[in-house]
Amino acid sequence: MIRTLRGDRGQTLPIYIWLTGILLFAAFTFFVFAQAASARNGAQSAADAAALAAAQDARDEIVDELGVAIGQEDNWLDWLDGDLDPAGAGAAAAAQQLAAENNSTLQGVEFVTRNGFPGFEADIQTNYTVGDSFLPGTEDIRATAHAVAVIQPRCDFDLDADPENPVELDCDGEIVNIDPGVFDPDDLPDASVLFSVHLAE
After folding, report:
1. Regarding beta strands 155-156 and 167-171, do their DSSP bridges make them parallel or antiparallel, or are they unpaired?
2. Can you tell me the distance from the alpha carbon of 185 to that of 101, in angstroms, rounded to the nearest whole number?
3. What is the distance, to the nearest Å, from the Cα of residue 80 to the centroid of all Cα atoms in its chain?
């Protein structure tokens, strides 16, 4: 009887070692996937921030141009439609800055349209890697991601409005009155009142 028990113990030891090895391998594999997921999430956050920064800079440029156009151009209301190309040098610089603040490098930013709205697509690569693991090569892998942010007009107005006379804008419930005859660019509300900036779905 004693010999039988000792023999059973000797047989279970290799099984125990084998099962322990499987569990350790599964744990290491899960850790690698967790590292990769964390890098991807960081990359996507950086891309989102870069795209939003580019779109916000372009939105500010549109509002600046609107302030100049009111009272001087007959088509100043067109600036409120969001149909004009908002591409500017500042957009790329703003995107690069936000990418850098998120420990990433901007690979490119370009003007795009989504659902009829102007916007910017940003591509980034993280400055950090997935990290060391038991899988070779992960220490050199960097995460990449891209995102698109659009500029959406928020204001409605009478399509028959005379741009040379006072115009009432309804910006999602906030009323903005503009009189081209006595207009001061400082009278314009914050850019966020006239246009929203958000990530494209």
Report:
1. antiparallel
2. 32
3. 23
Cα–Cα distance, 55 to 123 (Å, whole number): 14
148 beta partners = 121
Residue numbers of the domain that contains 136: 2-199
Sheet of 155-156: strand order equals 155-156, 167-171, 174-178
Helix (H) or strand (E) holding 118: strand 117-129
| Structural domains of the chain, count | 1
From CA 114, how far away is CA 123, in angstroms rounded? 16
**What is the DSSP-derived secondary structure letter of residue 176?**
E
Side chain identity at residue 78, one-letter code: D
* For residue 126, pLDDT beyond 60: yes
| Residues whose CB is less than 8 angstroms from the CB of residue 82 and which lie 6 or more positions away in sequence, other chains included | 62, 117, 118, 151, 152, 153, 195
pLDDT tens-digit map of 67-112:
989 988 888 998 887 665 655 668 999 999 999 999 999 999 999 9
Show the tokens assigned to 192. Answer: 């966020």
